[in-house]
Amino acid sequence: MKCLNCIAFRRAATVSAATLALLATALPAATENRAIEVLLRTGWQIAGYTSTFDNRSAFILFRHPDETFLVQCRAGYDVTREPRTYSNCYELR
């Protein structure tokens, strides 16, 4: 028998990461214009994700089959900022 709380947590985590990724697609990235939307459009795949302690943002790790480095993005939503969504992406070498 599977843990019902575990299944619910996984679903909530997946929805949260997908929502943050979609919210952050309209913003340019801080390094080399690596916006999340551009990463996904150019063949980068989500390799992992986690939420931060305050639950206002998430870290998303991207990999590309033809590259030897990873890209990590922090994406979030902040009602005190304009625009409300933000992301910061950088290469991990």
Q: What attributes characterize this protein structure?
A:
about 90 residues, 4-stranded antiparallel sheet, about 30% helix
Overview of the structural elements:
- The protein is an alpha+beta fold and 93 residues long.
- It has one domain (4-92).
- Helix content is 28%, strand content 32%.
- It has helices spanning 4-23, 36-41, and strands spanning 45-51, 57-63, 70-77, 85-92.
- A hairpin with a 6-residue loop joins strand 2 (57-63) and strand 3 (70-77).
- Rg, rounded, reads 14 Å
In sequence order, what are the helices and strands, one letter per element? HHEEEE
Q: Return the average pLDDT rounded to an integer.
A: 76
Main sheet attributes: strand count, strand direction, barrel closure = 4 strands, antiparallel
Whole-number total of structural domains: 1
Query: Outline, from the CA principal axes?
Result: globular
Count the DSSP helices: 2
Strand tally is: 4
Q: What is the strand arrangement across the widest sheet?
A: 1-2-3-4
The termini sit apart by 41 Å
What is the share of helical residues?
25-40%
Tell me the strand percentage band.
Answer: 25-35%
Could you list the spans in which at least 5 consecutive residues all have pLDDT below 50?
22-33
Category by helix and strand content: alpha+beta
